[in-house]
Each structure stands twice: as structure tokens, then as C-alpha cells.
């Protein structure tokens, strides 16, 4: 299931908007501007990862959102700046999702020791080798379930509502234990694998991508294409990405804590590239 339902005349309202909601965003919020996008058949979503990781990262992302170059953020929980970042997001009405963290140690002083220990087990396994995330580990099943559930509950506590969108730190939300274990609620928006680019070797993990993409499309809402903002060279790469966004739903993953990406997002250059297509957020309400 994709985020945007298409008609012969182009995209209709995103399926996740049709019921609306009194909490969070509604049809009068960000996507209430959808009518302004009707001349286009595509959509560009510029998302910033690691919201709440630390004060510096949160500050960089907030700066970009205030400039209108970031349309949604992926929030980390149990990190040193998570609760402050959540308060800022609620106050400013930012569009957020859960940035599931299975690999970087939780840094919040209030994080339970038991949770840290279970996460460390997962991190040791997932970072052991490149193909680890493609292997289902039955003996770690309960640890995966516990760590994922704890993060969903913590997000719900500090943001005041459950996450409608999921992605993952180092893309580990796509590991076999999470996906095949059904640990993410069905029907939510879930980040797909990066879309293929010319420089990649498809045989390296092509089969895993195909299997998981098929599972994602059947169980969750996904965009048409996903790309990272960097690298910036060659220029034809960015040209292709923004061109696709004029016809398809494209998510652009960014990390403003990276100096080069921060500069690109704050000097107005992105508006020149994105001129043919609108920058819009994910819908965070049902």
C-alpha cells in the first residue's frame, strides 16, 4: 500500500488523510495544502533523521525546519535530548515519526538498565557483519520484541500519541527479526530500502531487498522512492531525484548534523532544485 492513491487526473488525497483526526495534524494542517499540489503528480518529502539524539543534532534539524527545507523528522527516544525534542515538536506542530534505534547505545539517564542490556545484545548481533540484518535470530526474538515495544511506548508517552510512521537508525528497522517478527504495527508508514542507484552493486543484497520490499508493500504504506541527500556529486544524481519527485512520491533522507548537508539545507540551494515539485511532510495523523 502506498501513501498516495492515484487517479487518472493525478494523485488524490493521501489515503492516510481520508479519515482525519482531532489530534495532531488534520486536513487543515500540513496536508490541508494538498490542493496546491494538484497540478503535480508527485511529491517530495524531505525528512531529517536523529531528532532528539543530542542538543546539537536537534538544533541543526530545527533550524532547517524553520527555514522550510525539512518537512518531517524522525525522532529517537531514550536519548539525551529526546524529551526536550519532543516538547519542541509538540509546541511547534512538527511532523514526527519513530526512528527505531537498535544499534546506538541509549544515552538518556532515565533509560532502564535492563533495556540498555537488551539493546546491547541486538547491537552486537546486527553490527557483527554486513548481512546480519538479513538473518532471523530466534534466540534474540524476545529481546527484539522488548526493545521495539519499549521505544513505541516511550514515543507515545513523550509525544502524546503513538507513532504513525517508522524508520530506523542505520535502517535496522528492516532487519529480519523486526519485519518477519511483525514487530511494527500493520498499516503504518514504514521507510523502504534505498532505491537503486547506478553506482550500486545489486547482487550484494538484492534478494533481501526484493523480499523485504514485497513484505513492506503488502503490510505497510511506503513511498515510491527513497534516496539520501548526499552525495552531492555528480549533479546529475540530484537532478534525477528531484525529477522523479515531479511524478512520484519521493522521500529524501537527510542528516543536518552533517556539515555539508546542513549547508545545502540552509543556504536555499534546495529550493532551486525542488522548484518543479512541492516539499511536503508525511501525514502523521489518521
Polypeptide structure, described:
With 286 residues, the protein is an alpha/beta fold. The protein has helices at 55-66, 82-92, 113-126, 141-159, 176-179, 206-219, 235-244, 259-266, 269-273, and strands at residues 4-7, 10-14, 43-51, 72-75, 96-100, 165-168, 189-190, 225-228, 249-254. The radius of gyration is 18 Å and the shape is globular. The two termini are 15 Å apart. Residues 1-40 have low confidence and may be disordered.
List keywords for this structure.
286 residues; alpha/beta; TIM Barrel; seven-stranded parallel sheet; two-stranded antiparallel ribbon; 9 helices; 34% helix; globular; disordered N terminus
In short:
This protein has nine helices and nine strands.
- Strand percentage lies at 15-25%
Number of domains: 1
Main pleated-sheet profile: 7 strands, parallel
Question: Low-confidence segments, ≥5 residues, pLDDT <50?
Answer: 1-40
Helix content: 25-40%
Amino acid at each position: 500500500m502506498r501513501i498516495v492513491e492515484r487517479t487518472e487526473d493525478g494523485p488524490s488525497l493521501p489515503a492516510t488523510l481520508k479519515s482525519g483526526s482531532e489530534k495532531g495534524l488534520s486536513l487543515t494542517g500540513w496536508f490541508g495544502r494538498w490542493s496546491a499540489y494538484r497540478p503535480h503528480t508527485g511529491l517530495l518529502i524531505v525528512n531529517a533523521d536523529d531528532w532528539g539524539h543530542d542538543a546539537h543534532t536537534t538544533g541543526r534539524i530545527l533550524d532547517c525546519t524553520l527555514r522550510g527545507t525539512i518537512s518531517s523528522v524522525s525522532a529517537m527516544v531514550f536519548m539525551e535530548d529526546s524529551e526536550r525534542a519532543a516538547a519542541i515538536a509538540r509546541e511547534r506542530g512538527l511532523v514526527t515519526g519513530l526512528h527505531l534505534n537498535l544499534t546506538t547505545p541509549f544515552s538518556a539517564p532515565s533509560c532502564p538498565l535492563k533495556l540498555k542490556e537488551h539493546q546491547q545484545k541486538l547491537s552486537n548481533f546486527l553490527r557483527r557483519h554486513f548481512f546480519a540484518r538479513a538473518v532471523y535470530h530466534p534466540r534474540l526474538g524476545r529481546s527484539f520484541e522488548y526493545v521495539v515495544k519499549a521505544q513505541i511506548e516511550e514515543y507515545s508517552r513523550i509525544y502524546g500519541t503513538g507513532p504513525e510512521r517508522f524508520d530506523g537508525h542505520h535502517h535496522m528497522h528492516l532487519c529480519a527479526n523486526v519485519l518477519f517478527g511483525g514487530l511494527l504495527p500493520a498499516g503504518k508508514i514504514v521507510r523502504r530500502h534505498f532505491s537503486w542507484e547506478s553506482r550500486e552493486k545489486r547482487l550484494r543484497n538484492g534478494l533481501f531487498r526484493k523480499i523485504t520490499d514485497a513484505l513492506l508493500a503488502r503490510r505497510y504504506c511506503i513511498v515510491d522512492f527513497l534516496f539520501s541527500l548526499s552525495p552531492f556529486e555528480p549533479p546529475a544524481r540530484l537532478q534525477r531525484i528531484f525529477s522523479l519527485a515531479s511524478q512520484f512520491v519521493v522521500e529524501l533522507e537527510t542528516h543536518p548534523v552533517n556539515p555539508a548537508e546542513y549547508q545545502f539545507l540552509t543556504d536555499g540551494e534546495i529550493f532551486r532544485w525542488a522548484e518543479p515539485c512541492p516539499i511536503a511532510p508525511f501525514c502523521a495523523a489518521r
